[in-house]
Known about the structure:
Strand order of the largest sheet: 3-2-1-4-5-7-6
Radius of gyration: 19 Å
Amino acid sequence: MNSPxxxxxxxxxxxxxxxxxxxxxxxPELRQAIASLKLAPGMRLLDAxxxxxxxLDWLRAEIAPEDILVGVDLASAHTRSARLATASGALxxxxxxxxxxxxxxxxxxxxxxxxxNHLHDPVAGVEILAALLxxxxxxxxxxxxxxxxMYFAWNAGxxxxxxxxxxxxxxxxxxxxxQDLAAVRAMVGVLRRAKLHNVCAxxxxxxxxxxxxxxxxxxxxxxxFRDTWGERVQPYLSHDDYQELSRLxxxxxxxxxxxxxxxxxxxxxxxxxxxx
Length: 276
């Protein structure tokens, strides 16, 4: 990219650990979303923003071993991880999605998860990806958390304050406006503005409750409680609210949320599909 992405993405950025945690935790729902696309042998697939690479094997499972499967990501750490993670034989390419080194009209499906929202101009990004599709090809944009997640079912007030604090942090760090943060919810409009047809959306609910599996606990405690929340939200919360959040997020504290018998977690994953 000529300039960092909307959320600071560059070739040097590395959040492989967070991506791996999400993929391990959400694998059942992500594979369900892939299955809903009804892929078939003979298709050529592109994972645009392949991240740590786990989805490449899931995509390969839906087509024939000899079919073309390509993963592209901007970050060098991500493409290294993808090459190690996949047994699919996919071609992994480090490249800017806005300047893909791929021939036009080459693919039947572009799969892209939690990626388009990182672009300054999502419509332009989709138009570039659409140019890589053969006639009748589809773009499938996946996006997590279009609806507010539920972490503290017993304390909706604190949950709302933390969500607002995270948004304040992102606005301050990346100099974003509220519309920039909310634009992720407009994927249906993005595909239609990019002149795709037969646009449809389906939302999968990721629901977990106590007791959690090790994969689920690792994702929520590390990727959310520590890395997304943690100390960086402290300036945007009152002293009492931050102290309560700290207790709920600390595995060493008796109040640790993930060990409560009433812990009930909800997150959404939305897949929006359009055809050229």
